């Protein structure tokens, strides 16, 4: 509890540049998929109540690192994770750790929208239901509505809450998935290119939402859009070929990176 | 088609296959194919018509029925020989380690009928133990495994044991007096004391094995193969055996038949030879393998041999 | 030339058509530099199909119609006088065919020359004896008129066969040639072969329909026969099943239907939960090693002959349940019971549920699981709340299949549940099912034309209609609750 | 309210150490563990049931793979076999097996006296009774094959009688022999004595796999040869017909057929066919294939066709479920590059559906392989001793089948057949496993998640 | 053939602004999904050998319209298309039309990457194989390599051509799908947000590729990125709630749109 207050104090004092207390810490994280090594000793601190962006070329291991943070990689048989990752100072790969509780605290939104084959309402109510966050019908209605609203989807679907979530367009589906993640109010939200299927208006809404969520939550977002990274994140980490190239305040990364590769990647950017 | 085709009774099947096997190894003809599938189905097949893809012989554990003969006539199967091959004894046996039973048909009727005469009254069957029926029967619970209604054996059981018993112990008269039909004699109790077996004798044996106080109804040949497991009961004081049945002392038996399609005799290679071989003394005689296996040899075998040689078709049913 | 050889020749032509069609397409493509509409193989297939299909269709039609036409013609030659009393013209025709067939064989085996045959007369030769030499069975001696009819039958059949061969081969060649001429880059060869494949697919799905028709047809006739002998009201509404040899049987279906239902429900109550849990465990929890061992191993359960289960029920489970359940609870002393048969059958049904469900569960995309885990769901929550609903239609299919098998099973019920038709609630008492009685009445010792045997057909048809109703219900349920992923 | 839910979540999980578990989480984990345990228990139950059944089959049946033989020097006495001394094959053919029985009796008696065995109470017919009733037939075959051997003394390895064989397999004991009508304790003692002399041996029983069925009096000679061939022929027919037809029908129904009343009818209809008792397929087969189409009785072709019709619904149902499970995106991808619907199905959808199809095939074939009831009506539940010819002609010859052999043997009186029935079940299962191994191997190759 | 040359001439003369001869034309296109109408009488000309971008908020019917252009909507049972769509003056909804041939000429890349569960090589070789575009192994090797190269994927996968395409990362998968579409050399390529899963470098490659392809092919691309639309397209069409709001040269659309809604949408944009 001490750490929490400390972090909060620190952040209000120095909103940018100086790293806030770290919510999650990766130490020498290595990942193998079978024979193939996907991450090579990554050391990264995720600051609390800030947005951290992970950038880098396709296939460099951003998603892999992200999935390590809530142990989603556990579901891939051939995936082996080395090193350690701490959440509030506790190693989440400790055998005594409860993955379920971990994932309730570290939520995730995926790259490909994956709504459940259920109604829109049930998609959102699913998390609160399994975590026991709501009991009565009215509570569920409430949490479903707020979550959908936060994800900027409510108006579009309010008349068809009980139709299947899979009948939505791609963008709508992804926003539904975000709503679903928000509904369990996690501490950390991991987002793997959450906006890659969204139009600018929806993207703006989500970005606004991310900014809003930052008040209470720690957010790690993988993105291909430098603009997005610049807009929403306080810190940025650059990956390349499974290595963490460089990490720092977003502003600095985009204006004055230390590493040649970051420089190249960023200036090689378009629009 | 170059082999004889036979279908019908599962009771006759063991005998027919013994003969078929011997026929195959003693002649140049191929071994006949013997199907089982029930007497009724066999006779139906026989009467399906004349021709290569119909069977030549139907085994039957009961006599052919008029409806079968009509069907045959309708399908152009005119001349059929009836060949009686011997008698099948039906025995009552219990577990080898159990007590001895000396039955009479009347005991069986008292044990299994739905309504019995007790102290001069027609009552729903009250007996639970054999010694309640007759004091010199063992002190054992009544439990009988009798053939299901699909079996020809059941018909014999009904006729020669239950109905005879019904008359013996006076129930028949009482029923008649009460204005009921004779058919009521055959109504068996349904409280789980009499258990129908739709399977075969191996199933009955397994049930007797699992219920040591149970009494099963078996064919004589089956019993003879399992004398180490079964103790046979006497009926009217007679121990069932090939000899007592042939002598007509043991009451519960029935004749077994097969029916030959005469139209096939000259055209299916080996058919006439098989028929003659079957009824020859070496096979069906009292010292032949069939008798050794438990078929009660027909005292009128010579007559049958004569008929077979002359291909005498059967006359009308009497 | 027999139809078989003719068919082989057509097939050879077909193969040639394929090669030529393909080659021509390739040549055209090279010469014109044109882009072919389809792959060269498709052109080959198209030519092959044109060669084969019309020819074979013609042949089939010919083979079907020829006997009808010839029969008609010959049949009019036969005077009424040779038709025996009470017999039918069709029976005599059968004899004619048999004789003609026998004469063919006589000639084939070289026993009689064609010339000798034409001079052969029924009143001078022992036709029956001669035909017996080649194994053709005749019911009686041959009347001269019948023999003449047989001879003209032969000659007409010969001419017809010759015409047939010419016609079929000409069709094959003509269509093949035309098709080959039509091979051009723009020809929609693929569509042709795909249309053909499609009609094959349609044909295959018709097999199921035809089977149903066949079943209904082969049951219906005898069922009608049965209802002429036995009142339908008693059959459908009587609660007593008690067949007798001497007639006067009670043949009420209700106790049998009840037994069928009861045994199946008990079996499914065992098989469905266990089967589903196995499927879930193997698909979601177990390692590859266990799964690759356990799945086929459990499938063996479906392959063990039911007689083994029957013996198991009879010898082990039945007495066990009697001694440990029925007698202590005072529920009876029967070693065969609904529970015995149901439990043992349930074991047999496990793989029907587990294997099919496992495949369906396995097919649910990983993204569904990820989505759920990402929200902090435990594995079991994911399975119960996300995967099962997604896999539901397939699972219902698997359960239906298991239920179907339960209804159709004979051996286990005979040995496990006994043969007593009874309407009762006590699961520890003997009962029996429709299927068991179909088998026993059909293979019994009763005469065929009696209601006691014919009832088997009525039972079969009733069960058929009954399960049809259940299936319609199931389809409706699946439609209502299906959830589609992606 | 938002804050409320948020804070309740906070209270639930946030800020607490990951090592502590909330009450609800504990319950959820307990549920998880229970669920998993139930799953494991189900698997264990399934496997135990299998092993239990297999175990009982094996313990009852392996003994049928061994058989007891007696080595006998038999003098082929010309005085008995060929009084005329012409060695005329025609004349020899007329001699029945009954003529050969005395030769065996003589040989056994001589063996006993040579070895100096004396057993009290050994009856007159007891000694020759330890030899199978199959033996005279064997002698007759031998002599007919080579009449010149008449007059010589030839060593034969003859089958011992079923009860003697049973004695060495524990089925028959001295105790039961006393009660048994078909064997005496003295015969068993004689067998023991012969065994001690090395004249009687128990060894592997090849003829169990190659010999045809034998009648009720000679269980020791009964084999599975005809049944194995018959089953193999039928399975070949079933596989070649039901798999393509079933898959084709499923493809049409799942991919092409318009969704309408008619396809609903077909769908229900197929599901319903799966519920039709197998004996009804026998009725159908009898009516259509034998009575209408005129195919022969007892022939594998008819059996194969009937079992095909019976297997089809299973395969269709499984295949349709598998096709349904292939994600639409795969079809779209293929269509998007210009594949025709037919190509997209045959190139992409079918391979992905293969595991499910193979499962259906495995279950369907397993069922077909073990089925007896429909064969009852088309004449395959029969005593057949002649081997069917090689295919395709052999498809039309009478044959038996493995489940039929099991069914027949379990009905016979002599308990030796029970052991043989279990042996036949083992062979059937091996047959099944061999048949399925291919399918299982293929299934594993095709199985993947996407 | 005349049209083709005409179009080519026209294009060289007036590369932008003036619409080229139209390759595809939608007339009064309406689409219903069951009860729900998704397109309301869209009239749109797709100019030959140019890139047309479809923009608009999520769920407005862009994908739906795109799928009409090669009749991919045929695969959705409940989807009914009204009006007519012409390809080179021929109505592609004419019953005599061969859909397969149509789709070979009008290729498609989807929003969610959907590689076949086969090897990378087989994924790319599949199209040429079914269309008979290659015969020998060497020809296949050739076409696979060039297609992968054009899609900017070759270097990353050249050592694992025979490993499954589904094992690639999201971005790699999408590029594989593009390579697969290119391999059959269609006349028109439809792309549904092809870059939504790509990083900037890969995106740049694809955009370059699109520009290159424009020389020979007609391209219709759905995108959420205004920048991308501006960068790659010559003409842009703006959809809203199932209606075509406005269509015109990209430059004009982005600087001086006629319609208020376009204005709003474009200025509401970020980055
Ligand atoms: N399940 C898997 N099995 C094997 N290899 C994998 C798996 N998932 C990812 N990889 C490999 O690991 C490397 C890193 O993949 P990752 O998905 O983390 O990349 P990424 O940075 O997220 O790329 P993108 O931006 O395209 O999503 C890639 O080379 C990829 O091919
Ligand atoms: N298969 C379908 N069944 C029913 N409705 C559908 C289906 N596909 C799309 N729709 C509906 O049609 C409308 C248009 O969808 P479409 O996918 O064309 O939108 P889009 O502009 O491509 O959106 P996005 O940018 O999110 O992909 C949406 O309201 C959507 O919900
Ligand atoms: Mg990624
Ligand atoms: Mg879209
Ligand atoms: O089979 P059976 O007719 O003798 O009962």
Automatic annotation (TrEMBL), chains A, E:
GO terms for molecular function: ATP binding; ATP hydrolysis activity; phosphate transmembrane transporter activity. Pfam families: ABC_tran. Residues 24-266 form the ABC transporter domain. GO terms for biological process: phosphate ion transmembrane transport. Signal peptide: none annotated. The keyword Hydrolase does not apply. One of its GO terms (cellular component) is membrane. The keyword 4Fe-4S does not apply. Gene3D superfamilies: P-loop containing nucleotide triphosphate hydrolases. Keywords: ATP-binding, Nucleotide-binding, Phosphate transport, Transport. Belongs to the ABC transporter superfamily. This is Phosphate transporter ATP-binding protein. It comes from Nitratireductor pacificus pht-3B.
Automatic annotation (TrEMBL), chain C:
One of its GO terms (biological process) is phosphate ion transport. One of its GO terms (molecular function) is phosphate transmembrane transporter activity. It holds the Pfam family BPD_transp_1. GO terms for cellular component: plasma membrane. It is a multi-pass membrane protein. SUPFAM superfamilies: MetI-like. InterPro entries: MetI-like, MetI-like_sf, Phosphate_PstC, PstC_N. Keywords: Cell inner membrane, Cell membrane, Membrane, Phosphate transport, Transmembrane, Transmembrane helix, Transport. The chain crosses the membrane at residues 6-21, 42-65, 161-180, 200-221, 261-285, 297-321, 341-365, 386-407, 454-478. It is found in: Cell inner membrane; Cell membrane. Residues 257-474 form the ABC transmembrane type-1 domain. Part of the binding-protein-dependent transport system for phosphate; probably responsible for the translocation of the substrate across the membrane. PANTHER family: PHOSPHATE TRANSPORT SYSTEM PERMEASE (PTHR42727:SF1), PHOSPHATE TRANSPORT SYSTEM PERMEASE PROTEIN (PTHR42727). Belongs to the binding-protein-dependent transport system permease family. CysTW subfamily. This is Phosphate transport system permease protein. It comes from Nitratireductor pacificus pht-3B. The lineage of its organism: Bacteria, Pseudomonadati, Pseudomonadota, Alphaproteobacteria, Hyphomicrobiales.
TrEMBL record, chain D:
Keywords: Cell membrane, Membrane, Transmembrane, Transmembrane helix, Transport. It is a multi-pass membrane protein. It is found in: Cell inner membrane; Cell membrane. The chain crosses the membrane at residues 37-58, 232-253, 273-295, 301-323, 349-370, 421-442. GO terms for cellular component: plasma membrane. NCBIfam families: 3a0107s02c. This is Phosphate transport system permease protein PstA.
